Structure formats: structure tokens, C-alpha cells
Amino acid sequence: MKNTSSVSSQNLYKLDGKISVKQAVPFGLQHVLAMFVANIAPIFVVAGACGLSSDQSAMLIQSAMLIAGIGTLIQLFPVFVIGSGLPIVMGISFTFVSVFCYLGPTYGYNSIIGAVLIGGLIEGTLGLFAKYWIKLITPIVAASVVTSIGFSLLSVGAASFGGGSGSEAFGSATNWILGTVTLLSCIIFNIFAKSYFKQLSVLFGLVVGYIVAVCMGAVDFSALQNTSIISLPAIMPFKPEFNLNAIISVTLIFLVSATETIGDTSALASAGLGRDATLRETSGSIACDGFISALSSLFGCLPITSFSQNVGLVAMTKVVNRFAIGAGAVIMILAGIFPIFGSLLATLPEAVLGGCTLMMFGNIVISGLQMIEKCGFTQRNITIAALSLSIGIGFTQVPEIFSIFPQIVRTVFAENCVAVVFIVSIILNLVLPKNMEAVKN
Q1: What residues pair up with 305 in beta bridges, in sequence order?
Q2: What b/e string do you get for 217-247 counting C-beta neighbours within 10 Å, with b at 16 or more?
């Protein structure tokens, strides 16, 4: 029996290993908790900017959980050529928030939905034909993008640790205590736990942090009072409007989102499976991003993309089993059908989440650096990685440097280091000599 259990636990580190339900559920729940707040946060921001009612916002949150669950299942278990077959978790993308906050008040929320529908179909189609352009994404370009994703998320983790951007109690003693307790719980559990339980350190930290938060009175249960137990998401709650300016703007961001997806897919394959992502996996991943985002628009919701938070979780735990991650997708779908369940998960304090994400995001940075090392420290690779990261991260730290450019350029690049790193690394990869050492001599 002991040998059977040992074999089963080893299957957690295999894509298609057979595991029990009691093993799958906690690992799936760990992934859901790691992304839940980040999944619904963009909706709050965009809904507020567009003047949507609280009922409409609640409806969008419900749809977001359902679509995220469906998208994750398709990534795990591809439908024809859509989906990567990798343990990629999907969720509402933060990448689009700034452009939506500009388009919504200007053209209306319905124009956002129309643009998401068209932009999603375009990205999905590009994914299907990735073999014709994916050669532009060389290993050093992918490694630079992955590293930039990790660095871009560090401030997100720090903001969560402090209580969440815009919080009145940001940086308070309560948030410091919750974040620190959660982080220490993760570390201690990872040190002393045995077998595969060691990889549940994030879930353990979240549970301990949540219990401490309840004891400190830092959990707000008021949102549960008027929440229905079961409710089906509405289809076409917003009639799409097709505004050309909105479509062009959103499609450009979809291209940026595709670069992040390429980076996430590369990082997951490298950190979780110890190999490069295949063309089939990358193509299916991008196609899933686009077509599921188009489906999301039919539910009145925002674009769906791969979640770097969960890539970091895979990098940290090495648990890549598709059935374990699939359990998380089922939990998300249930949260979309049973709003009371989603509302309960939403009571998780941001500082508790921040205590866990700091370590996860750091793992993405390390994965990117390991990918750069794997590419080799030639003069050419060093130049591409160093210059793209310094420009991408440096310039977006002072977004005012983009002030001479049109609004659409500022919206896309001014605060999106991943997009800048991608563009710069692509250009350098195209123009630099293939053998700079030989040229130097």
C-alpha cells in the first residue's frame, strides 16, 4: 500500500499520471486560491471606470469564474488544435485594464465587448498559424520575455502584501502581520512537510493566513448576505458594438497578451517539465487565449489569458499533473454556477494572498534567468537580454518618457514592460549579427 501511495504521489510530477481525487482537489484548490483575487480584480477596476452597477459587476465576476474554468480545461485537454495540453491556468487579463479604462468612458462598455470579440478571434487565428511567424520568437527572446514577466509581477506581489493597491489600510500593521504570517507559514510547511504534501505549502499558508485574518477581524463577510446560492451566468448581457478605434486599440493589446502567453508557455515547459515548449503547445496556447476571450465577450466579460501567478506556482512545486490542475478548473466552474462559493473565496484578504505570491513571482524570475543561461552567454544573447530588459523595465518605471507618443502608444507600452521587452528583443534579434564574436575579432 505504501508503494502504491508513493507511485501515486510521483504521478503529481507527470502530465498524465494517475492520481486520486483526494490528491487532486487540494492541489486544484491551491491554484484557484492563488489566482482568485487577481481574476476578479480587473473586473472591479474596469466596471468602476465604466460606471457599471454593483449587480452588473457581480454578474461579470460570476461569468469570469465560469469562463476561466472552461478556458483552463481546454488548455489542459485541447479541443482539436485549441489548447496547449500543458497545466496552464486561465483568468481575466490585467494587460487590458488601462486601455479599457480609457475606452469604456469614451465609447461605452458595449464597445469594449465588441472589440474583445473581434480581437479575440484575431489572436486565436494568429495562434492557429503560429508556425508561419513563431520563428521570430527565438529562445533568447522567449527567455527575456519570461524574465520580464517575473519582474513585472514583483510589484504586484508587494502591493498585495501591503493590502492591495488603493486600499485605505495599505501598509498597515494588520496587513504586515497577515502577509508575514502567511509567508512564514509557507516556508515552514515547505521545510517540515513530507512527500508530496510539501508542495501544498501555498495552500497551507493561505489557510493559516485566512484563519489569522478571521481572528483579527480582517475578513469582510458582508458580501455573502445578498448572494444567491445558485445562478446561471447570463449570455449576451451586453450587446456588442463595433467601434473601429476600440477594435484597433484592443487588438494591439491582444498582440501584447499573445507575447505574454508565449512567455508563460515557455516558462511553464522549462520550469515544470525541464524542456522547451513545442510549436504545437505554443500555437494551441495562443489559440486558446484568443478564442476563449471571444467566448468570454459573449458572456459580457473581459479577455482571458494564461496566469503567470500559476506558472510561478508550478515552477515552485513542480506539480504539473493535468488532472490536479483540472480539479481547480472544476472548482472555478462551480464558483461560476454557485455564486455563494465564489463570494466566499472572494473574502480572502489581499495581504494573505501577497504573502504567498512573493515567493511564486520570484520563481518566475529565476526560471527566466535559467532559460537565459540555457541559451548560452554569448555576446549576442547578453546584448539582447540586457538591453531589452534594461529598456523594458527601466523605461516603464518612468512612463512619462513616452509622453511625446500618441495616446494609443502610451496606453500599450508606457506601463507594460513585457510588451517593451518583447518589441526590443525582437528588433535586436533581427538586426544583430548572428555571430557577434566573429565580427568583433
Answers
A1: 91
A2: ebeeeeeeeebeeeeebeeeebebeebeebb
- Ranges in the chain, pLDDT < 70: 1-8, 37, 45, 54, 98, 195-196, 198-199, 223, 342, 345-346, 437-441
pLDDT value of position 121: 97
Residue 239 backbone class (left: φ over 0; alpha: ψ -120 to 50; beta: rest): beta
CA-nearest of 392, 292, 384, 299 to 84 is 292
- State the DSSP H helix or E strand holding residue 306, giving kind and residue range, or none if neither: strand 304-306
Phi-psi region of 349 (alpha: psi -120 to 50; beta: other; left: phi over 0): beta
Rounded to whole angstroms, the Cα distance separating 272 from 386 reads 25
Nearest to 261 by CA among 296, 295, 311: 311
Please report whether residue 4 resides in a domain: no
| Residue 291: Cβ within 10 Å count | 23
In a domain, 2, yes or no: no
Which 3 state secondary structure label does DSSP give 177? helix
Model-wide pTM > 0.85: no
d(CA 31, CA 40): 15
What is the greatest pairwise CA distance in the chain?
Answer: 73
Tell me the one-letter amino acid at 366. Answer: I
DSSP 27-85: HHHHHHHHHHHHHHHHHHHHHHHHT--HHHHHHHHHHHHHHHHHHHHHHHS-BTTBS-S
Q: What value does the CA radius of gyration of the chain take, rounded to a whole number of Å?
A: 21
Q: Is residue 64 a part of any domain in this protein?
A: yes
C-alpha span between 172 and 315 (Å, rounded): 31
Around Cβ 136, how many Cβ atoms within 10 Å? Answer: 11
For residue 99, tell me if it sits in a domain: yes
Domain count, the chain: 1
How distant, in Å, are the alpha carbons of 30, 193, 421 from that of 214? Answer: 19, 25, 41
Q: DSSP for 246-270, please give it.
A: HHHHHHHHHHHHHHHHHHHHHHHHH
Domain residue limits at 173: 11-440
- pLDDT of amino acid 52: 80
pLDDT tens-digit map of 362-394:
777 887 888 888 888 899 999 999 999 999 999
**Which residues is 306 bridged to in the sheet?**
90
> Using CA atoms, how far apart are residues 28 and 13, in angstroms rounded to an integer?
14
